[in-house]
Amino acid sequence: MNARILAGALLKMVFGPSAKRRYRVPLTAHQQWMVSLDAVLAERMWGHSHLMLYPLKRINSTNCRVSLQQSWDITSPESLHSTLHWLASEGHRRQMASVIGHPPVAWDFGRYVTVTRLAFGAGYIDEAGAWQLLANAVAPVAQTYSSWQAFAHDFVTARELWMRNAGNEWSGSHEGTVQAVHRLLDPTNTSSPWQQIPWETIYHSDHMPA
């Protein structure tokens, strides 16, 4: 990214249109639960949003596209769907299962939700398509875990294992992930989506939060 594009992206992160104003329709409880599967990585992203489909507080398609390209080599709807198919059908969980003792579903599907939200922000998929994709994450995750704590534990364990082969560019980043999880699980943190949307929400009938 050249300096001019970078400067523009940074300005949008601070002064861009409000995502909350553009997407005024509130999410249902189930929708908020689905986007909260992305909470660990979202918590680490500057200008992130929780409990919204759009991943940032400010509209910034450039930032979303750059994140997808740099982290996932996603540059089009075609490469997006290829990556999401891999995460949903295989991911890293198969090869990690022999080390951890079970497949860390949270690691693959937490990232699956991250990629889907960023793809919506980048304009690679529309809102209806995003929700259709996110719905694919519900059954694998809800049937594997019984709490945000269990989900987070598997996510962190798998990420630490992945870090061993990730290269020096990720050096030192794991501590930030651990701290993000601690903030999300802190019962006194009223801004945490995990404190606002209980894990059990997904097992009950959908509704509009009060």
Task: Describe this protein's structure.
With 210 residues, this protein is mainly α. It has one domain (3-203). The chain is 60% helix and 0% strand. Helix 5 packs antiparallel against helix 8 (105-122), helix 6 runs antiparallel to helix 8 (105-122) and helix 8 (105-122) packs antiparallel against helix 9 (127-135). The radius of gyration is 17 Å and the shape is globular. The termini are far apart. The model is unreliable at 6-11 (pLDDT under 50).
Biggest sheet features? none
Total of domains: 1
Describe the oligomeric state of these chains in a short phrase.
Answer: single chain
- Low-confidence runs of at least 5 consecutive residues: 6-11
Helix fraction?
55-70%
Note the overall shape: globular
Q: SS-based structural class?
A: mainly alpha
Strand content: under 5%
Number of helices: 13
Give the termini distance in whole angstroms: 43 Å
Number of strands: 0
Order of helices and strands: HHHHHHHHHHHHH
Radius of gyration: 17 Å
Query: What is the average per-residue confidence, as pLDDT, rounded to a whole number?
Result: 91
Per-chain topology:
Layout: H1 3-15, H2 19-22, H3 29-35, H4 39-43, H5 61-72, H6 77-89, H7 93-100, H8 105-122, H9 127-135, H10 138-142, H11 148-163, H12 173-185, H13 193-196
Helix pairs in contact: 5-8, 6-8, 8-9, 8-11, 11-12
